[in-house]
Each structure stands twice: as structure tokens, then as C-alpha cells.
Amino acid sequence: MSRALVVGLALAAAAGCTQARYHSTVNAPGIVTLAPPARENGSPELYVPPQDPGEHELYVAPGVIGGMGVGRHEPGPNKNGAELGLYLRMAYKTTTRSHHRDDLPWPAPGWALNLGWAPLQYGPHAEVGPIHVEVERQWFLASVGLGVAVYPDDGTAGVQLTGAFKPYVARVRYMAETGFEVFAGLQLELPRAITWSR
Fold this sequence. Notes:
By secondary structure, the chain is mainly beta. It contains 1 helix and 10 strands, in the order H-E-E-E-E-E-E-E-E-E-E. It has one helix at residues 2-16, and strands spanning 55-70, 80-95, 110-122, 126-127, 131-138, 142-150, 157-165, 168-175, 179-189, 192-197. A hairpin with a 3-residue loop joins strand 8 (168-175) and strand 9 (179-189). The N and C termini lie far apart (87 Å). The relative contact order is 0.19. The mean pLDDT is 81.
């Protein structure tokens, strides 16, 4: 009886196996080209050492400038005034090494663009100061800028010259309608460097 049961189970198992192996019908390898590997002769003259591509850097520095002097205001017994201004200094350069943004941002010797506005000029009364655009020549701590200044309230325009040795600054303007203006004071910058790979 047990022998007949074993034979029956063996026949049932054999009847269920219709294939001796199974294969997948998906994710086939596709067309494979077995190309020979690139030739390498090991010559030292063909070795190219890795090089740092360097980076592009945009120096962006918003700042505040304030000082005392003689500005555009009504004549009076005390012609001294004060001016409070805002500015944005921008300079571009390329560096020979990457990750320069990890260093302390500092303007490199060269040319820069200075955009600014004095929202407050105070003499006998408060008034709005000029908007200016200057092209600057920068050195380590010093800079000299020359550009134009325009008062937004009446359109009076003139030439502006700014000299700085951080944190000290002096500014002279000659406006077409009101003549000379001279200010001297301090400036404070918050520099930042924006970099991207060359």
C-alpha cells in the first residue's frame, strides 16, 4: 500500500514538470558589443596630471557710508551737514583654484562698479541725497572711484569722486546747479563672494 502511494506521488510530480528549465522574458540584455579595450602602453610622456580648473568669482558687497561735510542745502549760519548713504560694490575676477568661496571674501586689485544712493542728507533741514554710479579702481584697502551723481527730486546732476582707505572715506561732488559738495566719514561693508566653476 505504501509502495503504491509513493509511485503515485512520483507520477503526479513528474506530470507537473512540463519544462526542465525556466527563463525570463523581460529585461533581456539587448545588443552587446564586445569591443577591445583601449590600448595603454604605459609611457610616462603620455601622462596628463590633473589640474584645478579654477573658478569665476563675483564679489558683491553691500555697505553703509556716513559722514560730515558741506552738502546741497540752504545757506545759513551753519553750513555743515551730514549724509547717510547706501551702496553696492561689485567686482568680477577669475581664480586659479577652486573652493575660493570658503575663504574670507575680499576684493581683488582691479576694477569694480559702485552703485549707491544717499537717502538722507541733513543740513539746516533733511532732504534726499543723490543717486550715484561710479567706476572704481581697487587695491588692498584703498579705492578711488569716479562717476556721476543725480538728485532724484529735481534732476540736478554732476560729477562725483570718492576716495577710500577702509574704513575711512572722502567724497567730492560738483553739481551743475549747486556747486561743490564735500563729505568725509566712515564706510562699512558686508562682503560676499559668489563663485562657479570655470
